[in-house]
Amino acid sequence: MITIHHLTFRYGPRATPVFQDFDWHVAPGEAWSIIGPSGCGKTTLLTLIAGLRRATAGTIHVGDTLIRRPRPETGLILQDYGLLPWATVWDNVALGLRVRRFYGPDGKHAPRAESPPSRQDARQRVEHWLRRLNIYPQRHKFPGAISGGQRQRTAIARTLALQPDLLLMDEPFSSLDAPTREDLQNLVLSLQAEMDLTSVIVTHAIEEAAILGRRILVLRDPPNTAPVIVPNPGAGLPGYRATPEFLAQCNELRHLLGLTI
Amino acid sequence: MSDKTFTPPSAPLPVNGEGESGATRTPPLHLMERGPGGEALYLILARVGNIVLALVIFVICWIGLAAYLDREIMPYPWEVLPVFVTEMQGDLWDHTVTSAGRVLKAIGVAVLLATPTGMGLGQIRVLNRIFSPLIGLVHPIPKIVFLPVILVILGVGEASKVFLIALILFFQILVVVRDEAASLRPELIQSVRSLGAGRRALFRYVYLPASLPAVLTALRVSVGTAIAVLFIAEQYSTRQGLGYYIVTLTWQRLRYERMYAGILAMSLLGLALYVVVDVLERIVGRWRRAGEF
């Protein structure tokens, strides 16, 4: 799904490269977490894959596409939701579909294969995702009038309404309280199970990385040259949070991040 | 004996005026008991009441001033009002329509030019760095000083007046829209871009709705200045408009009642524009009252 080949990225001509000659591969259907200390480049990597930043050298392919700009089949979810404050929950969820209708299937802003959804079709898809994410009763409210968890649900619904094959998440639940965060983590697990979705979630929370990623990419202080990959096959199994394997996994991650237990 | 003279009153005295302010803030009981509808009705009645009160105070001040001055230049309201009504059925209406048309045309031109320019300056940092000092330099100049130049270049017709007002509105809108567009969070832009939006869709779905309230705020603030400038501009080489009516047709011919009819018309024009912009701003900015986001 994602193939990163000899990636080098630096923020300025004299800055230390965040990535140097970095290779990474994600197979279709995998669920990955990326973890590392702040400043290690995890968000940078995600924005590079999302096509919001250009690599200094090397290539990034998602599917068959060489990434130069945002790819229409990739969904992105950010920590601060990125909702339009002047639009209702419904209009926010419909935004992506409206953008697709706006351009038509040009292959650049919307998938070439898929003809843009009709008005009726778009309405059905919006309603479906509002109901699936339990925010249908809030559909007429503005983002300022709903809770943080509901805002993030709105952002997820907006992204999933476009039927992405790759879901990128940048610390999506960091600003939420613990019960809401756990609730949304379970939601992501069930979405991973029921959809044909490759997912990459960036987080600074060790537990979250172990809950959501069946494989975990550990980044350290730049420059990152070779990926450190930790398999985590238990992620997504029911009751995984309570198992000794989960605790051992978290401790291994702590060790890799240079933390004492 | 003295004890009986100081019997406490049956009702407790309000402490620090608490009782009074409490009474003015909560709606009277008989209106509250009707439920939420009754409360909305109370709010509307309170609003209408405030307007009526303001009008009454205004008219009393007017009468008081007219009585105190006791001169022809300050007629009583009841002398002006009938003249206003009859004049509005004749020439004054045409002059009002002309002036209103000039202001509306200028608003249209200014909004159409300033909004995209402001959005561009707000989002493209290089452009802002180049043009901001220039805007900072030109914005504070009172544009009315260019009236002679504009009259010579654009002629004495419609264009010169519309241009002058549009010039004033242009900078007001430009600055507010620029700041609004610059304050859009990069995360918002990034996530909308990730939905597939390119430059055109960003303008349509992000920058335009984001700057609409800003445009209206700028208009609400500057529409008064625009009408004041129109008043002056209409005194030069024109035979149409409220400025011409008030100064040349009535004041200089000592027809004071008619002059006041003109003043009334111009005031109402300003009030109407202000109210329309204010209501639009409230509708477009509904989401702002939904809470911090």
Helicity of chain B, as a percent range: over 70%
- What is the number of helices of chain B? 13
What is the name of the CATH class of the largest domain in chain A?
Alpha Beta
Strand content of chain B: under 5%
Bin the strand percentage of chain A.
Answer: 15-25%
CATH architecture of the largest domain in chain B: Orthogonal Bundle
Domain count of chain A, please report it. 2
Biggest sheet strand order of chain A reads 6-7-8-3-9-10
Tell me the helix content of chain A.
Answer: 25-40%
Query: Considering the protein shown, what is the CATH homologous superfamily of the largest domain in chain B?
Result: MetI-like
The count of domains of chain B is 2
Helix-strand makeup class of chain A: alpha/beta
Number of strands of chain A: 10
- The number of distinct helices of chain A, counting runs of at least 4 residues, comes to 7
- Unreliable stretches of chain B: 1-27
Order of SSEs of chain B, N→C? Answer: HHHHHHHHHHHHH
CATH architecture of the largest domain in chain A: 3-Layer(aba) Sandwich
Distance between the termini of chain B: 67 Å
What characterizes the major β-sheet of chain A? 6 strands, mixed
Describe the protein's architecture and organization.
The complex is a heterodimer of chains A (261) and B (293). Chain A has 261 residues and is α/β, with parallel strands linked by helices. Chain A has helices spanning 42-50, 89-103, 119-132, 148-160, 178-194, 206-212, 244-256; strands at 2-9, 19-26, 31-35, 57-62, 65-66, 74-77, 166-170, 198-203, 215-218, 228-231. Chain B has two domains: 22-69, no CATH class; 77-285, MetI-like fold, CATH 1.10.3720. Chain B has helices spanning 2-5, 18-25, 29-32, 36-69, 77-88, 91-123, 125-138, 147-154, 158-182, 186-194, 199-233, 242-251, 256-284. In chain B, helix 6 (91-123) packs antiparallel against helix 11 (199-233), helix 6 (91-123) runs antiparallel to helix 12 (242-251) and helix 11 (199-233) runs antiparallel to helix 13 (256-284). The termini of chain B are far apart. The model of chain B is unreliable at 1-27 (pLDDT under 50). The A-B interface holds A 47, 50-52, 70, 72, 74-87, 95-96, 98-100, 102-103, 108-110, 141-145, 155, 158-159, 162 and B 185, 187-188, 190-198, 200-201, 204-206, 209-210, 213, 284, 286-288, 290-293.
